[in-house]
Write a structure and sequence with these properties.
Strand content: 5-15%
CATH architecture of the largest domain: 3-Layer(aba) Sandwich
Radius of gyration: 24 Å
CATH superfamily of the largest domain: Response regulator
Bound molecules: FE2/S2 (inorganic) cluster, magnesium ion
Distance between the termini: 27 Å
Protein name: IlvD/Edd family dehydratase
Number of domains: 2
Structural class: alpha/beta
GO molecular function: lyase activity
Strand order of the largest sheet: 7-8-12-11-10-9-13-14
Largest sheet: 8 strands, mixed
Family: Belongs to the IlvD/Edd family.
CATH topology of the largest domain: Rossmann fold
Shape: globular
Number of strands: 14
Keywords: Iron, Iron-sulfur, Lyase, Metal-binding
InterPro entries: Dihydro-acid_dehy_C (IPR042096), ILV_EDD_C (IPR056740), ILV_EDD_N (IPR000581), IlvD/EDD_N (IPR037237), Sugar_Degrad_Dehydratases (IPR052352)
CATH class of the largest domain: Alpha Beta
């Protein structure tokens, strides 16, 4: 076994002295440097990322496992992206964090990596960065919070949107809002519904990057630590087997991830992140593949926001292995996973333990699932909608556009009683795409205008070039590409234009005559030069459109793990 770390710790003379001596200030015995696989534990712990705030404990469990298997664990921090606090949106920094991860791994004497991932963006950013180095790599997710409680009812992040509407209408008091706020996040862990964090944890499990069962074990369940410790043991073996990421992340694994995301009603953000990961590891994947491979896979997991239950319930019902067992006939079951076994090996013995939470495919919770990819003159390169979270009656709908030019315009007008809007209108939000905002925030599930809420309207067709929280729901068309800020058709929509959505026909069209559109296009002014320095400039100059995964153009692919020059 030729260890990469030997290029540091196995050296004689000045270089070896420097590489080892300073490490020894941590009380590390000499034999740790004598040919033990060095395992980097890539930690996104941060008190500003509450979903990952328990990760120092998790890292300790991984370390125990690494030591038990004869490895040398070294924990290191990388940029942590907290969904709730970061402005203007954590997504702006996904690619930046991925660069931190990639360069931290490559520059250091690391033979294999355990990625500690939790809150939404912390999973794709770490996996993307690690793919570009391609060492043996295993993911440990942090696990979801316990189910929230409010007035005797179960609650989770998806209720935030309901509470917001109720508070606008005055049907919930401030005192009750305070109670809900105190009861929702009861324990360590990430959002407890099938939002983006849970979708990402399920994605890495479906891709084969985790030990079986990773996604659903609650953050505070003792079995989470067992999984972390077993992962520590396993990564040491993976180095001996040279089981690199590229041996697991084949095209089949990506197809499996798409099918699992459909079966669990996973987040629309999944599409953007999976494409970015595929781009790093060199697997061809198009937006159309999300539609193609989710077609026919029913929704078997009854989880919020598409259904009723929470991540804790998914765990008690058998977790992702039980979901995969249920949809086994669709999957590429011989795909290899990090434990050296196939998907079939990992899920064949895990039947659903509760069919109201994880159903069979014969009797699914909802035959509609997955991410539908729309095309049309309003989204030449595509847009997405999640039918399981939408209103069936609105899936074929033509209505008058009510346009918000940007997020500020939206905030000023949405609750104005003068807004010219009715329940058949189509709400249109511009300039919330990757370059436009910048960073493509989760604002696509615009609130229902107050005057319609008061009439009892609960859903409307809403379209934008932005994203939606994985915990959100509604008939919401997202990720319109090309975005309005680069002159996509969305930029030319005006109040009163007719917009046609037909989910079954995969169409989203602006019903305006070509001559009129040509006239509008002549008056277009693009303004992307607001950012003159720093990461925002780099991002706006280089970010790709959402249908390609919104990675920076120069980050596609990888540079391997070799570094030829020494530091002194
Ligand atoms: Fe971190 Fe939802 S805010 S997972
Ligand atoms: Mg989110």
């Amino acid at each position: 076994m030729k260890l990469r770390s030997k290029e540091w710790f196995g050296r004689k003379g000045k270089d070896g002295f420097i590489y080892r001596a300073w490490m020894k200030n941590q009380g590390i015995p000499a034999d740790m440097f004598e040919g033990k696989p060095v395992i980097g534990i890539c930690n996104t712990w941060s008190e500003l990322t509450p979903c990952n705030a328990h990760f120092r404990d998790l890292a300790e469990a991984v370390k125990k496992g690494v030591l038990e298997a004869g490895g040398f664990p070294v924990e290191f921090p990388v940029m942590s992206l907290g969904e709730t606090l970061m402005k203007p949106t954590a997504m702006l920094f996904r690619n930046l964090a991925s660069m931190d991860v990639e360069e931290s791994i490559r520059a250091n004497p690391i033979d294999g990596v355990v990625l500690l991932c939790g809150c939404d963006k912390t999973t794709p950013s770490l996996v993307m960065g690690a793919c570009s180095v391609d060492l043996p790599t295993l993911v440990v997710s942090g696990g979801a919070m316990l189910t929230g409680k409010f007035q005797g009812k179960d609650i989770g992040t998806s209720d935030v949107w309901r509470f917001a509407d109720a508070s606008k209408q005055g049907t919930i008091t401030e005192e009750e809002m305070n109670q809900a706020e105190a009861g929702m996040c009861r324990s360590a862990g990430h959002c407890a519904v099938m939002g983006t964090a849970s979708s990402m944890a399920s994605m890495v499990e479906a891709l084969g990057l985790t030990l079986p069962g990773n996604a659903a074990i609650p953050a505070v369940d003792a079995n989470r630590k067992v999984l972390a410790r077993m992962s520590g043991r396993r990564i040491v073996e993976m180095i001996k087997e040279d089981l690199k990421m590229s041996k697991i992340l084949k095209r089949e694994a990506f197809e499996n991830a798409i099918m699992v995301n459909a079966a669990i009603g996973g987040s629309t953000n999944f599409a953007i992140h999976l494409m970015a990961i595929a781009g790093r590891i060199g697997v061809e994947l198009d937006l159309e593949d999300f539609d193609k491979y989710s077609k026919g896979v029913p929704l078997v997991a009854n989880l919020q926001p598409s259904g009723k239950f929470f991540m804790e319930d998914l765990y008690y019902a058998g977790g992702i292995p039980a979901v995969m067992n249920s949809i086994q006939k669709f999957l590429n079951t011989d795909a290899l996973t990090v434990n050296g076994k196939t998907i079939a090996d990992n899920c064949s013995n895990q039947k659903s333990l509760n069919e109201t939470v994880i159903s069979t495919i014969e009797n699914p919770f909802n035959p509609l699932s997955g991410i539908v990819v729309l095309k049309g003159n309003l989204c030449e390169n595509g847009a997405v909608i999640k039918p399981s979270a939408a209103t069936p009656a609105l899936m074929k709908h033509t209505g008058k556009a009510v346009v918000f030019e940007d997020i500020e315009d939206y905030k000023v007008k949405i609750d104005s009683l003068d807004l010219d809007v009715d329940e058949n209108s189509v709400l249109v939000l511009k300039n919330v795409g990757p370059k436009g905002y910048p960073g493509m925030p989760e604002v696509g599930n615009m609130g229902i205008p107050k005057k319609l809420l008061d009439k009892g309207v609960v859903d409307m067709v809403r379209i934008s070039d932005g994203r939606m929280s994985g915990t959100g729901f509604g008939t919401v068309v997202l990720h319109i590409s090309p975005e309005s800020a680069v002159g996509g058709m969305l930029a030319f929509v005006q109040n009163g234009d007719m917009i046609e959505l037909d989910v079954e026909a995969r169409q989203l069209n602006l019903l305006v005559a070509d001559e009129e559109l040509a006239k509008r296009k002549q008056n277009l002014k693009l303004d992307l030069n607001k950012y003159t320095r720093g990461y925002c400039k780099l991002y706006v100059d280089h970010v790709e459109q959402s249908h390609l995964g919104a990675d920076l153009d120069f980050l596609k692919g990888g540079s391997g793990s070799e570094v030829l020059r020494d530091s002194h």
